Amino acid sequence: MENKFAFNLKSLRLEKGIGQVELAKQIGVSKGIISLWENGLREPKISALISIAQFFSVSIDYLVGLED
User: Fold this and answer.
1) Taking residues 2-15, what's their average pLDDT?
2) Is 66 a member of any domain?
């Protein structure tokens, strides 16, 4: 199954025109974690999902692929 979260996270980051390092700083995680998430190798904790959703002004449902 395709990892919708990984795809949506990378797409949102690229749309905003920021790198992994900048996103990591903004949400308080390491650049390595962003890379793991975008490659579908790890999944974020709920606290990180909330931070990502707030940063990009999207819903958690959108992030994880439950809504378009």
Assistant:
1) 94
2) no
Query: Quick one: pLDDT at residue 68?
Result: 80
Distance CA 62, CA 11 (A): 12
Chain mean position to CA 68: 15
Tens of pLDDT, residues 31-48: 999 999 999 999 999 999
Structural contact between residues 55 and 27, judged by C-beta atoms closer than 8 angstroms: yes
Domain count along the chain: 1
**How far apart, in whole angstroms, are the C-alpha atoms of residue 1 and residue 31?**
25
The pair of structure tokens assigned to 24 is 């990591």
Tell me, yes or no, whether 45 lies in a domain.
Answer: yes
